[in-house]
Amino acid sequence: MTAPPPRSNALMIVLVVCVIAILGLLMVITTILINRDDTATPTSTPPPVTITAPTGNLDHAAVESGIAKVLKSSYGIDDVSNIQCPPAMPSQLAAVYLCALKIGGDNKSVTVTVTRADGTYEVGRPR
Fold first, then answer.
1. d(CA 99, CA 89)
2. 53: CB partners within 8 A, 6+ apart
3. Which of 18, 68, 75, 91 is within CB 3.0–4.6 Å of 53 for a Cys-Cys bond?
4. Please, which residues bridge with residue 75 across strands?
């Protein structure tokens, strides 16, 4: 009976090197993903506009005027017209109202979200 031929360790060495290379690549990718800058978002929320609502309702005219100001200052939109919000908008926390408007002659809408009971609200991006 003859002895079996000696086994080559070359295949095992190649496999170990490949596994180490793949693990190293995964570590690099994970480090990049963890350290990337997520603070700059193109759809950042505009600053809230504050109005006083002594009757418990948002001032209809003030909201419509505020929408035009926010669209210009936060979104750079100048050609806003025909803003129409619901006539009664209680300043209830988390209430959301839909206001219609025209931008450059196109029909659009924005949401007005009450963020505090004192009448602070946020204007959403036109849709």
1. 11
2. 59, 91, 118, 119
3. 91
4. none
pTM of the predicted structure, to 2 decimals: 0.56
> Where does the chain have alpha helices with state H?
10-35, 60-75
Using CA atoms, how far apart are residues 77 and 126, in angstroms rounded to an integer? Answer: 10
Task: Tell me which residue has tokens 């909201």.
Answer: 63
Strand arrangement of the beta sheet that strand 106-114 belongs to: 80-84, 96-103, 106-114, 121-123
Is 117:58 a contact under the CB 8 Å cutoff?
no
Angle at 19 between CA 13 and CA 25, to 5 degrees: 135
Residue 13: its pLDDT value, please? Answer: 85
The one-letter amino acid code at 82 reads N
Tokens representing 125? 């991006």
Ranges of each domain in the chain:
60-123
Residue 68: HSE in the Cβ half-sphere, 13 Å Cα cutoff:
16
Q: How high is the mean pLDDT in each 10-residue block of the chain (127 residues)?
A: 68 82 79 62 54 67 91 89 91 90 93 86 90
